[in-house]
Amino acid sequence: MHFSRSNNYQISTVRINILQGGIFFLMLLMIGRLFYVQIIQNDYYAGLGAEQRSVIKNIQPERGRIFSLVDSASAIDDLYPLAVNKVYYEIGVAPAKISRPQNVTDIFVEVLELEEEEVLAKVKKDSRRYEVLAREAPREKAEQLQVKLEELRFDINKDKSEEEQVQSLEDMGISFTKNILRFYPDKEIGAHILGFLGYGNDGYSRVGKYGLEGYFESDLAGYFGQVIGEADVAGRLLADNDGKPVQNGADLVLTIDRTVQYSTCKALEKAVARYEAESGTVIIMDTETGAIRAMCNYPSFDPNQYNQVETAEVFNNNAVYHVYEPGSVMKSIAMAIAVDQGKVSPSTTYNDEGEIKFAGGQVIRNAGNKKYGWVDMKEVLAASINTGIIEATSDINNKIFEDYMKKFGFGEKVGINISQDSMGDISSLSKKGDIYKATGSYGQGLTVTPLQMLSAINAIANRGKLVQPYMVSQIMYSDEIIEDVEPKVIREVISSGSAAQISAMMVNVVDSGHASKAAVEGYYVAGKTGTAQVANPETGKYFADKTIHNFVGFAPNENPKFTMITKLDYPSAARYSADTAAPLFGEIAKFLLEYYQIPPNR
Rounded mean pLDDT of 285-289? Predict the structure, then answer.
């Protein structure tokens, strides 16, 4: 018995020693691990902890708004919104959390007027973690939904214990995500001025496209802010530091008069239909300052639904983008050059024989092969005589003529703050040979934009001074800094005396020439028609059945309030601009003279 007890005692002692050794070894491991973590790896784990507690939140800026004047009598602080931001909600469901799919479906059908079958299918789709029911629900609809869904949540909870109750709509399986989307109240009216807010190259960021939205993207977009701080275990922000404030986008105030813009665009739309044209453009400019009061293109598009257009070409602002051969409206410019150079006066006469021959056998004839006999320069403009304007400019050096055309602003961008400002092309005037100056004098062989043509004629209306066309009058930044855009005279192109003579000749065009339908009773209206041929880029020749009709003019002649271009592309209901673009000008001019309350002057 003694032997047995001694053996058991020895075994127990060995076990105890092993156990003690194991515990001691584990303690050494723990001490070593603590030393490694707290001393050697202290910086690493301290940083990891800070990273887990830190909060970095980006704050999205609010995009700047775009405003126009309500009308001509409005103060600068009485503005009409053309592009604003509206709050919308994306509303979705987590089907697995929905305990009463039919009740939820009924509420969405009632408030958002959705199809019951489609909503119920999404709500019951247990295999999906998230289903979108509405992407752009207005704020008021979202609030109605929330009220009704909260009533449903209360009903769900009334028979549940406190632990089982659904604490929020999100716990019930319904989420509301707030989005700020761009909204354009006037839809198609002025869409080409504004452009739209589209998607960037990454497919999800929003950026301005075309028009002012594109040109002023960096100003309108603003800059993201950031909050940097530490959060507690519940995610609540304890403190913040080192962040940066959000900078909202700048607001733009335009020179556009909303009343004029609306009336002009509607008149253009009707004219395109009346004269069976493919498209059209009208621009109205304040003669003295260069401020754009209206800029319309038709067809237009709704920037709220820009993705529903048939072709992206409709986005192009043809007022500044489309280049065309202007035809006989250019005769006013060529005549101004001849008068300013002292080569002719309004009373200068010549014997028109119906054609002029050039070196190489080239011959230019009048429209309809007419011969006018002895006529003066007033008749040359009034009857739009090709050979007459060639005669008027024949003694002008080709380089001088080209330089004048450049001074009028042709061949370079107008410089207006809007995307797609095109240069046009007057390079033919640099070629050797008088034929290029001759064709250029009546608007063939060179191209311009409607705004270039308007700006050049405006120099005649403005006593020879070329002013900078502009559309943005103020840029208002979020820090209350306001940047005012002042009218700017670029240069004097012709003398005031030359401008006065050409203006009077252009009044005669309306009173006695082809442009009688542009007249407004009781006023001296100045203008010039142009029925321009259209070049076929494939053959280099002109289309037999395509013309562009344009008319450029101003009123009243002595002290013009506005200068305007009306342009119709490929009209088929009438042959000449005297019967299309001129009466459109007259219609809008009558409205403007009444609108600006300008008393009759004749």
Answer: 97
Q: Is the pLDDT of residue 233 over 50?
A: no
What whole-number distance in Å separates Cα of residue 27 and Cα of residue 420?
77
Cα→Cα distances 420→181, 187, 192, 319, Å: 25, 21, 10, 9
DSSP-H helix ranges across 309-462: 330-340, 377-382, 386-393, 398-407, 434-441, 450-461
Specify the CATH class of 255-595 in words.
Answer: alpha beta
Read off the pLDDT of residues 108-135 as tens digits, 9 standing for 90 and up: 999 999 999 999 999 988 778 888 999 8
For residue 467, the number of C-alpha atoms closer than 13 Å in the C-beta half-sphere is 21
Which of 93-107, 379-393, 394-408 is least confident?
Answer: 93-107
Residue-averaged pLDDT of the chain: 89
pTM of the model: 0.83
* Contact yes or no for 592/561 (Cβ under 8 A): yes
Nearest to 255 by CA among 282, 286, 281: 286
With CA atoms as reference, report the closest residue to 268 among 185, 184, 192. 192
Cα 58 to Cα 53, 55, 80, 236, 238, distances in angstroms: 17, 10, 31, 16, 17
Tell which residue, 602, 500, 515, has the closest CA to residue 566.
515
Share of the chain residues as helix, strand and coil, in percent rounded to the nearest 5: 40, 25, 35
d(CA 471, CA 292) in angstroms, rounded, equals 5
**Which candidate, 246, 248, 241, places its Cα nearest to that of 55?**
241
C-alpha–C-alpha distance, residues 178 and 92, integer Å? 12
Dihedral class, residue 285 (left if φ above 0, else alpha if ψ from -120 to 50, else beta): beta
Q: Which two three-digit tokens encode residue 256?
A: 């556009």
The residues spanned by each domain of the chain are: 2-40, 95-172, 255-595
Residue type, 125: K
Instruction: Specify burial of residue 223 (Cβ count, 10 A radius: 0-12, 13-18, 19+).
Output: middle
Query: Which one, of 262, 255, 113, 250, lies nearest residue 185 by Cα?
Result: 262
Structure-token match 């090709």, residue found: 386
- Between the CA of residue 523 and those of 393, 526, 557, what are the distances in Å? 31, 10, 8
